[in-house]
Design a protein that fits this description.
Helix content: 25-40%
Number of helices: 5
Structural class: alpha/beta
CATH architecture: 3-Layer(aba) Sandwich
Radius of gyration: 15 Å
Order of helices and strands: EEHHEEHEHEH
CATH topology: Leucine Aminopeptidase, subunit E, domain 1
Bound molecules: adenosine-5'-diphosphate
CATH class: Alpha Beta
Number of domains: 1
CATH superfamily: Leucine Aminopeptidase, subunit E, domain 1
Largest sheet: 6 strands, mixed
Length: 173
Amino acid sequence: MTVLTLIRGSITDQRVDAIVNAANSSLLGGGGVDGAIHRAGGPEILAECRALRAARYGRGLRTGQAVATTAGRLDARWVIHTVGPVWSATEDRSGLLASCYRESLRVAAELGATSVAFPAISTGIYRWPMDDGARIAVRTARESVTAPVEDVRFVLFDEHAYGLFEAALAAED
Ligand code: ADP
């Protein structure tokens, strides 16, 4: 049975098979989680991202999609890069945010990962409201996780995010 857990801390400190990166479509690095992952994981990750851009993803990775690379020096086997939608007050993009969790879990299962760590995708630079982002994350992970993934962790950077994920988990039960 899959267990969803919450952790307060940095995603770069997780020891799991796969760490999910809140990337942008360029795959060439950015701020927030993306910057932290490339800083901690070293240049090998960026080198693979560049190779992906040169091959299958010449126009970048589309919003809601996911692709894996090495995890470099991180204590993980893979980084799964996914591109969250930018929050919009006028357009409902929640299907794309759900797709990030679903596609990342699909890639993780395909790779044979048993444990996956997620950040709260889109809730930083992309401004998605944390309470809604938490509900989408928890619901989609529960619905779409498949074997061999059995350990899904949401790694929240601060107490506020942690509390909202806790509430989203409690509401599901
Ligand atoms: P996005 O561009 O998808 O919004 P960000 O990286 O800006 O992605 O932020 C996503 C969420 O991750 C935010 O809630 C932010 O506070 C949080 N965050 C930033 N750095 C880390 C980290 N090292 N570990 C876990 N979460 C982080």
